[in-house]
Specification:
single chain, 589 residues, alpha+beta, PH-domain like, 7-stranded antiparallel sheet, two-stranded antiparallel sheet, 13 strands, elongated, coiled coil, membrane, cell membrane
Length: 589
């Protein structure tokens, strides 16, 4: 019943989705109540409106999601379902609610009834997750079944091309996409509509109605013992027979259980291809049309009995479970493989990083080894040169000694000489190494001393920079003072030049006055000679006029009004006093 419950939920999911007009994932409670009432009626479950009201009785008047509707379905509907209702009618109710809103049948090659059958097959083969989809493996299984039912040849290349197109999109189909795929006749080209409809019906009967085999055969009656042609339909646990293939007039049913068996019978009473189905209460003799059909019927009935003995479902349901288990196993293996690949990738990356690190270290070691090898070769070359020089010297000594002593004594002496020289060389090398160590120590001491001197030099440089800054500031002040003194000097030079000009003017005036004085003196001398007679008159008037007589013959200062009232010394004093007053006025300005 668990497998049927999943199929019931798939059909109900389609109906719920059709009621979700705005595609919000929720449906109003009033619509769900109507849907629940219809489902109870079809599935012959006592309808309990009180339980329905109680389940949806809360303060929230809004719509209900599919997850919220599931508890009610499981508790009040699916848990009470029995096997006494028509599954096709149940599916038809759900189909009626959803197909008009999802697909347009006008351009398809199949009828509404065929589309309904494909929809049921989709629900059977789809994955148990929502939204419902059918994967490419199940699509191929269904299309193969359909081509076999139509008597066509399966075109694997065409399906592979379609699978590539499908994989580029979503790798799966919805129910409506599957109906459109079958209805467009993409994989049934060359088949008419009737053949396609018959193929869909045959696959539908096998997968949905659990019809394992059907066909006309002759059956022997129990009372009259006459042979009558009947239409037999083999199911998982029964074998029904009808008057014709329209299944309207059912004549009987052979109930199969684990105690039943089927056996082949020899030909008798003019009938061929006989076999018998033995049950606990009755046995049924049946005649097939040929040996092939007889063997196929015997094999199909034995398969049903064997499945009943093992407690397994019908073959196609068992095959579906195996395919799903295989897919789950493959997915688990794929996930495990991906995890292993991820771990291997991580390990590979770590090893790659380690290899790169080791490569770098190896390159560094090679470079170091190369440098050491070069140093060793250089040292070896130096030693070889030194050894060559020593050997040449030794050869000369040996040649001298060969002339003086015997061969053995000479060789011994040469050997001892070489040993001594090698020891001496060893000691010299030790001394050289010691000198080198001492030189390195001295070098380190010098480095420390240089470091200390550099630090002192830095300190002194900082001090000198401070002094330099002070000198710069003093120079700046000195330059300002220098500019001020320069301006004063220029002012003084200007004043001096003006004074010199005035002095030159005065000098020229003095020379003019001297010339005038000489002329006046000459005139006075001439007048003195002429006016001696006038002395008496002038003496009378001495209180009023001072007679200017010739005085000292030395140089005298002359002005525009006659002889000056001051000497050269007084003029120098007056000039110095005038210059000081001028400088004082300029400094005050």
């Amino acid at each position: 019943m668990g497998l049927l419950r999943d199929e019931f939920l798939k059909s109900i999911w389609h109906a719920f989705t059709a009621l979700d007009v705005d595609q919000s994932g929720k449906v109003s409670k009033s619509q769900l109540k109507v849907l629940s009432h219809n489902l109870c009626t079809v599935m012959k479950v006592p309808h309990d409106p009180v339980a329905l009201e109680e389940h949806f009785k809360d303060n929230d008047e809004g719509p209900v999601s599919n997850q919220g509707y599931m508890p009610y379905l499981n508790r009040f509907l699916l848990d009470k379902v029995r096997d006494n209702f028509d599954i096709l009618e149940f599916n038809n109710v759900c189909w009626t609610l959803c197909f008009k809103k999802n697909i347009n049948m006008s351009h398809l090659l199949i009828s509404n009834d065929d589309a309904f059958k494909v929809w049921c097959i989709f629900n059977f083969l789809s994955e148990d997750k929502y939204p419902l989809i059918i994967i490419t493996e199940e699509i191929e299984y269904f299309l193969r079944k359909l081509m076999e039912a139509m008597g066509g040849i399966w075109n694997q290349e065409r399906f592979d091309d379609y699978k590539l197109t499908l994989n580029r999109k979503q790798q799966c189909l919805s129910a409506w996409e599957l109906i459109e795929l079958v209805g467009m006749g993409h994989f049934s080209k060359g088949m008419n509509r009737q053949t396609l409809s018959m193929g869909i019906s045959e696959v539908f009967q096998e997968l949905i109605l659990d019809v394992l085999r059907q066909g006309y055969m002759m059956k022997k009656g129990h009372k009259r013992k006459n042979w009558t042609e009947r239409w037999f339909v083999l199911g998982p646990n029964s074998m029904s027979y009808y008057v014709s293939e329209d299944l309207t007039d059912k004549k009987g049913e052979i109930l199969l259980d684990r105690n039943c068996c089927v056996e082949s019978l020899p030909d008798k009473e003019g009938k061929k291809c006989l076999f018998i189905v033995k049950c606990s209460d009755k046995s049924f003799e049946i005649s097939a049309s040929d040996k092939k059909r007889k063997q196929e019927w015997i094999q199909a009935i034995q398969t049903c009995i064997q499945l009943l003995r093992l407690g397994l479902p019908s073959p196609h349901r068992e095959a579906r479970l195996r395919r799903r288990e295989l897919r789950q196993k493959q997915q688990a293996e794929q996930g495990e493989l991906e995890e292993r690949m991820r771990l291997l990738q991580i390990a590979n990356e770590n090893k790659h990083r380690q290899l790169e690190s080791m490569t770098k270290k190896l390159e560094e070691a090679v470079a170091t080894a190369t440098l050491e090898e070069q140093r060793r070769k250089q040292t070896q070359t130096d030693l070889q040169d030194r050894y060559r020089t020593d050997l040449e010297r030794e050869k000369m000594v040996r040649q001298q000694m060969e002339e003086q002593v015997a061969q053995k004594s000479s060789e011994l002496e040469q050997y001892l000489q070489r040993v001594r020289e090698l020891e001496d060389m060893y000691h010299r090398l030790e001394d050289a190494l010691e000198d080198e160590r001492q030189a390195r120590q001295d070098e380190e001491t010098m480095c420390k001393l240089q470091t200390r001197l550099l630090e002192e030099e830095s300190a002194k440089r900082a001090e000198l920079e401070q002094i330099h800054l002070q000198q710069q500031r003093a120079i700046s002040q000195t330059q300002a003072e220098k500019q001020e003194l320069e301006s004063e000097r220029l002012a003084k030079e200007t004043a001096l030049q003006a004074a010199m000009l005035q002095l030159e003017s005065l000098e020229r005036e003095r020379h003019g006055a001297l010339e005038q004085y000489e002329e006046v003196r000459m005139k006075l001398e001439q007048a003195a000679n002429k006016t001696k007679s006038w002395k008496d008159k002038v003496a009378k008037h001495e209180g009023l006029v001072r007679l200017i007589q010739p005085g000292d013959k030395g140089p005298q200062r002359m002005t525009n009004w006659g002889p000056a009232a001051f000497t050269d010394t007084e003029l120098d004093l007056r000039k110095k006093s005038w210059q000081e007053r001028k400088n004082h006025n300029q400094s005050a300005q």
